[in-house]
Design a protein that fits this description.
The complex is a heterodimer of chains A (274) and B (263). Chain A is 71% helix and 3% strand. By secondary structure, chain A is an all-alpha fold. Chain A has a two-stranded antiparallel ribbon with strand order 1-2. The chains are: A mainly alpha (274), B mainly alpha (263).
Chain lengths: 274, 263
């Protein structure tokens, strides 16, 4: 039964196309190549700490946190409604909820561009009512709106999948023992749904932190998040060292968030969405 | 009573939020003028222009070609690897599983850039081939994660029984094991196709001049401003994805019904 060798082509593939490329990023972040010689340097990481770049990081984190919180506030009630059994056409509702995700996220972002632009539907509508709107596109709020719109299902679905699995008998027991609905929610439902909330937060926070497309299309050419900064280093200024250092910091932030979030999720098998 | 009305209103509100932009996008792909706010009459002309647009059509072919080729290759390598992973020693298996989760968890932009660096250093001219390699790489984990659970559900005794009854290992594999893990392979293939069609970030960094998929074309067109032609392309793409997934869904529930009837 020696069939384990069957996995070796895959192993080799992953080493060539995943491990080595990530190694390259690490390499370029700490090594400067000069006149054929290589110098070990921390200069790239020091540059990350410069005020302009630190501001970009803080702004990205702030926007990602705001988007995640809005997704949680909007998404949790929605997940509860989807999971509640009074809803007669529940399965249709869930399909309807997933369908927008089948549209490419670029398309979804583009759709907002056409709605919010100067001659778009929303501004025209308010002009008809005699209300002059300020420029809607290319602001921080627009970027947050785009993130919430794109990532809301990532918050709702994991929470929903945990909520439907909660044993109704537990809720009835709490009610029988005299707990009013708010207490049933805060002491029973919410704690039981935490694994779903955790995966929801990870699944919204991570793409919100790393995106460069939503900020570019809805925030305009001068709206810079970490993702845009990294893209610029590789495609425009061609500063691989600094770009790699930024990528390493970004990866560290993801690892830290994951580690922090997964501490709360030990008993759960994980992978709520799949 | 009040509660259920509130629930309904909230549900309508969220669905309005989710669907309004998409519906507006589709409706204005049929608008006679270029305006995105005034309805001036029904037309198919943007769809005709889309089919005449060389750039859009080539990127459509690239999208379909890369999606089919990358998910096909990833499905083969991934399925074979999944069979091997089951027989690996525990330590090596956990290393391989960590490797499998790595690209799934890694930010797309980092995956894209790291592959770009690799291709530049290997002096691979970036274009169709490098984009294909990148797509196979990010598709592989999804295939493995779809096939592995099916392999773990498998009852090894049935395979042993086939060998006892005189089947060669390869015959037993194709006739006994493969049919049982086929649904997982199919799911993996479809998942890979969807990821590939949907990908923008990794393609953006791994492709070269002249070769772009639909997502890249739309991105570069959208940066220059909006055009009803993009609306038409996106509407058509959305309609075909919905149709495809409905057919798949129908087929799968059809299979289940048939199985139930047999039982």
């Amino acid at each position: 039964m020696k069939r384990s060798w069957l996995s070796f082509p895959y192993l080799i593939w992953m080493i060539i196309f995943t491990v080595i490329p990530l190694g390259l990023i690490l390499f370029y972040s700490i090594v400067r190549i000069e006149d054929g010689g290589m110098i070990l340097t921390m200069g790239n990481f020091k540059r990350v700490l410069e005020p302009i770049y630190l501001a970009v990081f803080l702004r990205s984190i702030k926007i990602a946190i705001i988007s995640t919180v809005i997704c949680l506030l909007l998404g949790y009630p929605m997940a509860m409604i989807l999971a509640s059994k009074e809803m007669s056409n529940k399965s249709i509702l869930i399909v309807l909820f997933v369908i927008p995700m089948w549209m490419n996220f670029l398309a979804r972002t583009y759709a907002w561009m056409t709605l919010l632009e100067k001659n778009g539907l929303i501004t025209t509508f308010f002009n008809l009512l005699g209300i002059e709107l300020p420029m809607l596109l290319y602001t921080e709020s627009t970027v947050i709106l785009g993130m919430v719109y794109n990532f809301l299902p990532f918050m709702v679905l994991p929470i929903y999948s945990v909520l439907v699995k909660i044993d109704k008998a537990v809720l009835e027991a709490a009610e029988d023992l005299g707990a009013p609905p708010p207490i049933v929610f805060s002491r029973v439902i919410f704690p039981l749904s935490l694994p779903g909330v955790t995966s929801g937060i990870i699944m919204v926070f991570m793409p919100a932190l790393t995106t460069f497309v939503i900020s570019r299309l809805l925030g305009g050419a001068h709206f810079t998040l970490i993702g845009n900064l990294i893209e610029q280093q590789f495609l425009i200024t061609r500063d691989w060292g600094f770009g790699s250092a930024l990528s390493v910091v970004l990866m560290l932030m993801i690892v830290l968030t994951m580690g922090f979030a997964l501490r709360y999720e030990k008993e759960n098998e994980g992978g709520g969405l799949w | 009573m009040v509660k259920s009305v509130l629930k309904k209103i909230y549900t309508y509100f969220i669905f309005l939020f989710l669907y309004a932009p998409i519906i507006v996008l589709i409706v204005f792909s049929f608008n006679d003028s270029k305006s995105r706010a005034h309805w001036t009459g029904f037309t198919f002309k943007w769809y005709l222009e889309m089919f005449k647009d060389r750039q859009i059509m080539t990127s459509l072919y690239y999208t379909i070609g890369i999606a089919l080729a990358s998910s096909f290759i990833a499905t083969i390598i991934g399925t074979v690897a999944a069979v091997g992973i089951v027989y690996l020693k525990k330590s090596l298996r956990s290393v391989l599983m960590d490797l499998t989760y790595l690209p799934v968890l890694n930010p797309d932009i980092v995956t894209g850039i790291s592959l770009m660096l690799l291709f530049i250093l290997l002096r691979f001219p970036r274009g169709f081939f490098t984009m294909l390699l990148a797509h196979i790489t990010f598709n592989l984990p999804y295939v493995i994660l779809s096939v592995l659970p099916k392999l773990k559900q498998l009852d090894n005794q049935i395979y042993d029984a086939a060998l006892d009854l005189g089947a060669t290992p390869s015959y037993a594999f194709t006739k006994v094991v493969l049919p049982q893990i086929a649904p997982g392979i199919f799911t993996g293939f479809l998942l890979a196709m969807t990821m590939s069609i949907d990908d923008f970030v990794i393609s953006f960094f791994t492709t070269g001049p002249g070769v772009s998929n639909l997502a890249i074309t739309i991105y570069s067109m959208a940066r220059k401003g909006v055009s009803p032609k993009i609306n038409a392309t996106l509407s058509l793409l959305f309609a075909s994805v919905v149709l495809l997934l409905l057919i798949v869904n129908n087929r799968m529930t059809g299979d289940n019904n048939r199985k139930e009837r047999m039982v």
